[in-house]
Amino acid sequence: MRFLTITLLVFATLAGCRKSERNNDTDITLIEDVANAQNALLEVFIAAHEANLTTPGIRTFLSGATLTADTLGSPRSLIVDFGPTWCASPNGRNRCGKIIIYQSGYYTTPGSTSTVYFDSLYVNGFNYSNTFTIVTTSTGYYLKPNNLKITAPDSSYSYTLSGNYALTSTAGTATVAADDDEFSITGTMTAAGRNGGTGNCTITASMPLVFKAICGQVVSGQMKIVPNGLAQRTLDFGTGGCDAVATGTLHGEAVAVNITF
Description:
This protein is an alpha+beta fold. 18% of the residues lie in helices and 46% in strands.
């Protein structure tokens, strides 16, 4: 009887600890930060992507921008200049400043690398700094942010992303304009957001993210997010609509995710 009593006390203590840990682990800030930072990354990716592909004619995501190419330099370079005042993208985001792209070779050649820099680039007031690279593959691209920093308009917080996304082209490859491009995304990312929160993000092939350029956002799929020292969260982007709606799950409970970018 004494052994049974002690055993029950141990189980009760453990259960109480787990409940206390859940009660203290309720912050969904990093879920929201990842959703918004990812949109910010994909916004500049699709502009750089179209700039790399562009030929004279329709340039959907580069509307209003001036392109300057240096094909004789080593490496080759391409400057996308949105000008000093706001230039709207098809999904309604306003941009100014420059995207500067250095190319190791022709963008469409598998193995070619485009390294993307920024010169006073702002999208909806968010400032971009540091770099990311695009590596062309036989089926799409690797997208690799290198401590890409996206700072809020009032400088009160920023997002930082590093990692490796594999983007598989699923639509739009027959046209130069990027508005009909769609990608299936898998891979891993390390994210830092508001309040100093950091964590690891994973997207698996069983539930890949689907990014539609015309929407300017991920429209379906799931991501696993594990903040440092805390329980895993799930970020679900829905079933395909351009609706800026996502759901987070923490300790089995669903929460609405506030996507503002």
